[in-house]
Amino acid sequence: LEQPDTLQHLGVRDRAMLEMLYACGLRISELLGMKQTDFQPASGFVRIFGKGSKERIVPVGEKAIEWTLYYQEKVRPHLSGKEKSADILFLNAKGKKMSRMGFWKILKRYVEMAGITKDVTPHTFRHSFATHLLEGGADLRVVQELLGHADISTTQIYTHIDREYLKEVHRTFHPRNR
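^ that's the sequence the OP posted. Answer follows.
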């Protein structure tokens, strides 16, 4: 999250996008499709249109709000040229809606800069979002709602790491395992 050079316009945009992706557990298509009016910092929520154009309201963390507000106020006006995409929140360097491939290239560069050798994709942020919530004790139904999953079995995919953690706690603290 901290790889983008935030002294540069595109670095600020990239930091805001990465923070938003992780803070809300978004699909890449949801992030890139966000309109400016979908970002509601005063309420602490974003409006997301997921698969099948299903709408959901998702809370946003403080860091994502801070970086996105800074991007909107100080950077976005420099990116939006004559052919601006007035409604799209995150623009590419030419002032148009960013493509999925464009985001992938940006992410790949930051992953390399960070020296990460594991495969990191936009979905990695969504997976981390769900896993961290579940490991922190969040209810599976709440995580399902936040992710916009129609079926809870889809959300249960993210519980595998949580189960490993439960086994470790059991091994460590149960009197019969000492």
